[in-house]
Amino acid sequence: MDSFQSSGVNEPLLQPKSPPSPVAAEQVSSLLEETLSDTTLSWWSRLRKATVIEYKYLYQLAAPAIIVYLLNNVISMSTQIFCGHLGNLELAASSLSNNGIQLLAYGIMLGMGSAVETLCGQAYGAHKYDMLGVYMQRSTILLMITGIPIMFVYIFSEPLLILLGESKRVASAAALFTYGLIPQIFAYAANFPIQKFLQSQSIVNPSAYISAATLLVHILFTWLALYVFDWGLFGAALVLSLSWWIIVVAQFVYIVMAERCKKTWTGFNLMAFSGLWGFFKLSAASAVMLALETWYFQILILIAGLLPDPEVTLDSLSICCTILGWIFMVAVGFNASASVRVSNEVGAGHPKSAAFCVVVVTATSFIIAVVFAIVTVILRHQLSYIFTSGEVVSDAVSDLTPLLAIAIVLNGVQPVLSGVAVGCGWQSFVAYVNVGCYYVVGIPLGAFLGFKYNLGAKGIWAGMLGGTTMQTIILLWFTIRTDWNKEVEKARSRLDQWHNTKEGQLMVE
């Protein structure tokens, strides 16, 4: 801490519970670049000092981000748990709607909202603070428009589910739950731009506090809706939608009221309606990139249902995917950190800092993933008993654990590299990589191994892990070969083009 104080950075601004203000963030960023460029220090001294600086910043970003994603996940999961106590049909309906139809909206909205990470992060690093509010509003407009066609998918969910082979009884119940989630679509449309707007400024703690408080309110309201007012599936879904709107409104109120956002939020601006096409292209690429990743392992479950003895297969795979999903939340926190740090440093014109933070966050996430993988292997015979007491399912989970461990390690690296891609604006490139690796290689290879060679669930998962491995290697190679000086120039050019255009139109590569 003394080294920071001697450099003119106020100590309270570096405490984990107080995210840095714009001034403090600039000082820390400049200090990191100066340290990496200081040839009077030995290589080891520069590395040690720079690592201390980066870890202080990384901790402030990653820890609250992980909490936010975990809590948001628990909000949806708690609704399923409540519905499960109503009966098997209600559990099946809420699970099908949440993990199937709702995932469509979540993947698209989260992906499109990630464009704000790139642009707000780079603008923040370049000290063009007034642009952040316009970017957030522009993204919200686009996502609201995108929510309209998605809404029709929700409205016609019952015939779509029947077309996909679900029984009329389950499809009807799932559709009833889905109708209650229609307001959630537009909550997503507002939430993700707001969330990325805050993250790009390293403001993450307020979102964590808001999510924690909302979870408590959500549990209370869901209990009232189901057990006091007897509103059933539709009521439970409406409460879930309401909880997401509570998060949206609370975060927006924070933006309007907080001193930290005075420079970046200057009120509603008609400029948000200009340059929508250029913004849409980057948003669409982001949506494709992240949605394909979000849906990838869901397809694994669908394919597994076609195997012999699907009940045990689906149970074991669902348990493994649930464990992987919880651990994945940690990687998602590092994904957000990588995106913020890279976009801020590139926007600030600090190529060495951008490259260094990529190394630090990737290495940290990888080490944590390896630890989780080792623990998973050690506890492979006990893991399934958290979810079920069946010995057959336990043996199946134990048999899949080596593949689960590999998936955990890969998920310690791949999401971070995706965060780097978002920070630099490489969404289009990564979208093409995802299509090729996931859907041209991974899924066909998994189906071939699972059915042709009778390897069952192990074959399907092994093939899909092959696609993930290929994608990770490509992104790693691309990141290693990146010329960070050129990335700084691209960011500067993009922001200057936006700033110098009378209509405020965004020029996207």
From TrEMBL:
The chain crosses the membrane at residues 57-81, 101-120, 141-164, 170-189, 209-229, 235-256, 268-292, 312-334, 355-380, 400-422, 429-453, 459-480. It is found in: Membrane. It is a multi-pass membrane protein. It comes from the Eukaryota. GO terms for cellular component: membrane. Keywords: Membrane, Transmembrane, Transmembrane helix. Residues 1-22 are annotated as: Disordered. Belongs to the multi antimicrobial extrusion (MATE) (TC 2.A.66.1) family. This is Protein DETOXIFICATION. It comes from Penstemon smallii.
